[in-house]
Fold 5-deoxy-glucuronate isomerase.
Amino acid sequence: MSKLLVKPKARSGLMQEITPESAGWTYVGFALNRLKPGERTAGEAGDKELCLVLVSGKAKISVDGEDLGELGERMTPFEGQPYAVYVPKGSQWQAEATTDLDLAVCSAPGGEGFKAKVIRPGTHPQMTRGKGTNTRYVTNIMPEDDGSAQSLLVVEVITPGGHTSSYPPHKHDQDDLPAESYLEETYYHRLNPPQGFAMQRVYTDDRSLDETMAVEDGDVTLVPKGYHPVAAVHGYDVYYLNVMAGPKRIWKFHNAKEHEWLFTGI
């Protein structure tokens, strides 16, 4: 199995835990907690900033003792936009599930002067990108132009069955602004119906990295560098939650030259 593909390590509780150390990189962390009603999880941001994303379900969430109330409304990631909470560097947080809950914890190096906040559905409108079988639906949770974080970029995408996404292929692995930014990235995948699978390829121009993976419900793929397109197979819609971070909070990508002609049709 590819080292870039991380399978869930449990059926409940802490399902996924990606750290910079386990991924072999510097900036991005990701965890996924699956809880039953009444169960709790908590943590400390330390020197990182966090984005708690309610992938599905509802929870009572507090940051540094401040009760943010019961958040969440969708019961699957394929139903509407998410609730999320930004947790700044040095803060403590707690979540108590009030329904079945999938809670993602996205992390990256934090900075000073940022405040905890609830990111509600509709804060950033869902966008339709692409045309034809390259159509997908994108919701920014923490985009680069919101000025609310030091490092984190968080976005979720729904790709209908039979469509491609993160396509035509692009990369962001060079700290060469304004042409391209360096961003590590994780993909947390969900499938509808859940027994399905999708395909993701991660590759570089020189093919020193060239991995193609069948991703299943709950898998995480790591993108340390290179292009990283996704293909949703017929009959199965694909959701993924992306976490990106690097030395600068800018998403500036480079398209694969041999596929740039595709942009004329999308």
Notes: The mean pLDDT is 96. Residues 5-265 form a domain with the Jelly Rolls fold (CATH 2.60.120.10).
